[in-house]
Amino acid sequence: AQKITQTQPGMFVQEKEAVTLDCTYDTSDQSYGLFWYKQPSSGEMIFLIYQGSYDEQNATEGRYSLNFQKARKSANLVISASQLGDSAMYFCAMREGRFLGNQFYFGTGTSLTVIP
Amino acid sequence: DSGVTQTPKHLITATGQRVTLRCSPRSGDLSVYWYQQSLDQGLQFLIQYYNGEERAKGNILERFSAQQFPDLHSELNLSSLELGDSALYFCASSPGTGLGNQPQHFGDGTRLSIL
């Protein structure tokens, strides 16, 4: 089974609107971390936001928030007030277990296009 | 600037050749990860090292090998290159200790083109 599933290969959003990028994960560990990365067309991978499995509150970082639903094993990224610069590929990732040297698992990514 | 340095940025070579990609992790990071990103295959995990030891192995071909040195820099060796090896190769690092919210930080990648 895939550890991280991103079911939306491509998404479109109007500028200034909010958009939700879906991510579901699969783990039997109680302790894990969830991460979102952005990859613009220039190629670099940019860390956006983190959610720990024991965090009771949803993570927020500026216009990014993570809608964490533990029972559903979902960690959706919400981008509010979309900007043209948000057009990029977005990857969801997970690190299982307590050992911080553990492997990261990445999803296949969602391509987001912001329309003016 | 992520603090992860990858060299070279671009590499053009021919089929059958061998190349070495180099990665210097962020200062203090113990874990180094290598990924291959092709146009049609997304981000593929190749291999991970933690403090000099191989920690996890992904879809790494037998023609590929890697190592992490005592100073924690890492090298990815690709041999008997094929056209299908053309891709963007990323190195990432993470602390491996400390708080659980430590992400991987990625280098800018090495773009390998096989002619």
Structural class by SSE content of chain B: mainly beta
Separation, N- and C-terminal Cα atoms of chain B: 31 Å
Radius of gyration of chain B: 14 Å
Number of helices of chain B: 0
Mean of pLDDT of chain B: 93
Given helix and strand content, the structural type of chain A is mainly beta
**Low-pLDDT segments of chain B:** none
Describe it:
The complex is a heterodimer of chains A (116) and B (115). Chain A is mainly beta. Chain A is 0% helix and 51% strand. Chain A has strands spanning 4-5, 10-14, 19-21, 24-25, 32-39, 46-52, 60-61, 64-69, 74-79, 88-96, 104-106, 110-115. In chain A, strands 2, 5, 6, 10, 11 and 12 form a 6-stranded mixed β-sheet that branches. In chain A, strand 8 and strand 9 form a beta hairpin. The radius of gyration of chain A is 14 Å and the shape is globular. By secondary structure, chain B is mainly beta. Chain B contains no helices and 11 strands. Chain B has strands at 5-7, 10-13, 19-24, 31-38, 42-50, 53-57, 64-68, 74-78, 87-94, 105-106, 110-114. In chain B, strands 2, 4, 5, 6, 9, 10 and 11 form a 7-stranded mixed β-sheet that branches. Chain B has a 4-stranded antiparallel β-sheet with strand order 1-3-8-7, with no helix packed on it. In chain B, a hairpin with a 3-residue loop joins strand 4 and strand 5 (42-50). The radius of gyration of chain B is 14 Å and the shape is globular. The termini of chain B are far apart. Chain A binds chain B through residues 31, 33, 35, 37, 43-45, 47, 50, 52, 91, 93, 98, 100-106, 108-109, and chain B through 2, 30-31, 33, 35, 42-43, 45, 48, 50-51, 55-56, 58, 88, 90, 92, 94-98, 100-106, 108-109, 111.
